[in-house]
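Kindly inspect this today.
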Amino acid sequence: MLSSKIVSKAAMVSSLLLVGLHSQAEQPMEEVVVTAQPIRDSQQAAITAKRDADNLLEVVAADTIGRFPDQNLADSLGRVPGMAIERDQGQARYINFRGMPFRYTAIGFNGIDVPGAENGRIPRFDSFPSVITRRLNVNKAVVPSMPGEAVAGYVDIQTFNPFDADGLSLSTDIGIGEQQLGGGDVDKLGARLSWSGENVGVLIYGSENTREQVTDNREYDLQRDGTGNLIVNQLQYRSYKVRREDQANGGHVEYRGDGNIERVFLSTLFSKFTDYEERNHYQFNFVAPVSGDTATNVPLYIDQLLEDGRYDNSTRTTTLGADLVAGGWKLEARYNLARTEFNTELPILYNSGVNFITRSPSLTTGSYDVSDIKDPLLTLSAPLNTYDYAALYAYKIDWPLNVDADKLRFDASHDLEFMGLSSVFRTGLMFEQREADGYVATLFDVFEFDRDRDFATTDPVNISSFDTGELWDSKTHNPIGATYFNNPALRRAWIASGGQLQVTPTEDQRVAISEDITALYAMMTSIFDWGNIVYGVRVERTDYTSKGTLNGAAVSVGDNFTTVLPSVHLNYNLRDDLKLRLSGSSGINRPTYIEWRAAAAVDPVNQTITGGNPTLEPEETWGADIALEWYFSPASLLSAGVFHRSIDNVIYTAVSTLDAGTYIPANQGQQWSYEGAVNGRDGSLSGFELNLIAHAADVLPEPFNGLGFSANMTLLNSEFKSLTGQKLDLPGTSDRVYNVSVFYEKYDVSLRVNYQYRDEWISPIEDPSEYWGAQKRVDMSVQYVLPVDVAGASITLFANANNLTNKTDVRYAGNDTINQSEAYGRRYLLGVRVNY
């Protein structure tokens, strides 16, 4: 099964190796990039960069990324103090930066920020593999030269540069492995080839990672009676066959001059994540729910949902840049084109136990035992494959959103004396145009298989003929005897029958937004004997127009606003090894394009409005940070910090009332019911961080001097007030987040074990009233560097293991009963890394 893929990938790597083996040896790279060097050296380089920074910064070096068993950049960032991961089917996807919502994090490549692929604001880190990254700059307190939308922080992804190594250089990774649950293949391939001369450098790189897995899922609709006993309304058994791919490729061409032209370059990066998902899903609906963990021969009806769907998101960014020197000024010019695409296509065959036209269910009976709620046992009175469904329908979800952004930026800096102090003055201007286009379409189509609309209940595709007879792969029991259906073939049969899988969107579902952002900043770094102060201001003007329809009539809503964002950062060297940092900063978070859309569905009879809110106010924040950093040895650090953010106009989803004149001018002054995004108030988040990185090399003799340890902990508290005055937590805030890592590195062997923990938090993805239970992960990596070079190349063998404790993730409903549990199994990967 693996052989053909291994051969093709090995051929690609071998061809690159043949080029590299006839080249010069690789030269030392930029100071925080450590290739085939000890973990200690890598962390020392990152700590040095943090120490020298003019703001509160965490740095992850390329070798540090490589030495963690990371699937993508979300995994890598999750090990930074204050960062917490949100996963989807076990794989890291989003980052809660210091416990704040996803949307509060800005993302950029080589200093150029780009739109978040999801909703135009939310970064999706699962589309960025670790192999493309030379360095991660995690800015926890932003300076005026950084984007104002970095409310929580700014993650700047630094990709490789051809001048990082002289001459011809090659780096490759190849790995194969297995996802334990379902026995799916795990493949990893990455390659980077560069050449640099005295004035010209060229680099190309690419990566492809695939993961096949089974997700064992149970979902529930539960409540409790007056005595606290469970009432089971519904049990869902789901099994997902998932294939996930991330691909990245890019290049960089650069000329470096000796005079006024320091460098001119063109760089490009394309990164894409694709999720192919087959869902086999049964819902058991109890028509007369009873109290208790067990029930016998109770009436129920069954729904079957079969899906062959796809999610994908991508980011393409291309930058043309020049660095110049003139009259004592350092000048930088950048022109960037960025495009993000986000698509969700989920056509679902809905074999229903209820005929929605006649309202009559097809009843059977069953008995259940939910004493072990994560592994509910349900026994049917007749085999599942003999159940007579009442009707066949279709559930269609189609959510595409494309964002195109053009950005022009100029920056200038000049060394000078200001108020008797050696100083650096920086200023810049940025203009960006964004166009967002898409729609949000969901349709439950009761006539998809009743095209004559005569209320027929026939099955034109003969669903039962696609039953493979293969029992589900499960961590839990499969008491219903569920088997997999051939969903891809079923999808083809659906199309062949004349079916329409996609949704034809209505105008009230469309997203069409134009947004212009103009920014100007000025900042000064004043240098003292004891350190420096960085202070300045950024001014951003936003002009936007949102187009849509209301009751068939075209509407266009626009506005503009100007935001002043001051900041100040004090970096005080209390001793040579002890640094105090004080920061004050501000930011602005604009609504997502889904929230800001003018399109909405209006019901004048019932006086209700559902859809976008083009008058939504942006969130405005003020923050303060205090940090104390003790660099007690070259590769060790102990730091502690406190931080606070005040947030006005907190955006959340609710049912509220608003002035109907916003949508229908003739109804000005009337208060109608509105379901969608609204502004809350009085938001705040406070936290405490503690971080330790320690190495035994300076205190213990051999062989114990290869030991190392790192641990970080973040304590958080957040809240905001809804329109009704109710206090709620900000989405994404766990009260406690911590990481612990122990490693041993000696005799060309590196062994590292890492533990991650975050306690419960609210997720805004599906229902804001739901929250995830505490999550724990144990990962391990082992690497062995061959003691001799092969034709001048350094070769490392590696083995990674993820989710070693085989944890099950659990989510809860607003009534504190479990509503989802899902398991994925362990993941293993073996591979080889070559650096030349």
User: Anything to note?
Assistant: The chain is about 5% helix and 60% strand.
